[in-house]
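Q: what sequence does this backbone want?
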């Protein structure tokens, strides 16, 4: 069955991840390396290219070169300290962050058994942008937080992390109070789409609209004036 005209991703992209989840071993990947390049890497690079005009209209500093580590996540897992020793990830990400700026913030599209689209930021140190910029803005703009929480609750799934007792703790919902941002280690705001939605011609346009909707949060959380 042919793909809809204008689709960037293909059914074979999702088929590959489904099969990988059942055969997650090096011998299978070695036998399917050409499929991985044709059905996963090439379409994800195509998605980066298709989204580039929308990202650069939000901020001209976004990285859009399509390289692994800059716009594409790697499929190989680091299993040295993991209990799960499967060697490959069954979800990959197209992500956009500002070139040359290590603020831990990204607009992303995740592709696996479904599609996730959203914003995420992780700040592991007390000097991270999420803590230094976001927490300061939250203290000065509590009413903005209330409005953002109301808006995001209607459209997205949100959760955030704080640190305590030597481990990160996950909290459901958006951190809508300034005191939450003082404890903030990570923030994810996203929505899920079906593979069928990702195959429609309007998928790129819908992702671009989501990025536009979430960019004020990106700016609030990590971007200095």
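A:
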């Amino acid at each position: 069955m042919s793909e809809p005209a204008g689709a960037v991703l293909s059914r074979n992209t999702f088929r590959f991840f489904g099969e990988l989840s059942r055969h997650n071993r090096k011998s299978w990947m070695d036998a399917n390396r050409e499929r991985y390049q044709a059905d996963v890497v090439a379409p994800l690079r195509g998605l980066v290219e298709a989204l580039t005009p929308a990202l650069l209209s939000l901020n001209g500093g976004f990285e859009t070169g399509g390289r692994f580590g800059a716009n594409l996540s790697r499929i190989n897992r680091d299993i040295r300290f993991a209990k799960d020793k499967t060697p490959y990830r069954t979800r990959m990400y197209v992500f956009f962050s500002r070139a040359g700026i290590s603020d831990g913030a990204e607009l992303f599209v995740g592709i696996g058994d479904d599609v996730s689209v959203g914003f995420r930021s992780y700040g592991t140190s007390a000097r991270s942008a999420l803590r230094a910029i976001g927490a300061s803005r939250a203290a000065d703009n509590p009413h903005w937080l209330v409005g953002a929480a109301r808006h995001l609750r209607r459209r997205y799934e949100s959760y955030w992390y704080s640190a305590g007792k030597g481990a990160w703790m996950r909290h459901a919902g958006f951190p809508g109070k300034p005191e939450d941002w003082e404890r903030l280690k990570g923030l994810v705001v996203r929505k899920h789409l079906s593979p069928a939605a990702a195959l429609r011609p309007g998928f790129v346009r819908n992702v671009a609209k989501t990025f536009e909707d979430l960019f004020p949060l990106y700016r609030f959380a990590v971007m200095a004036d």
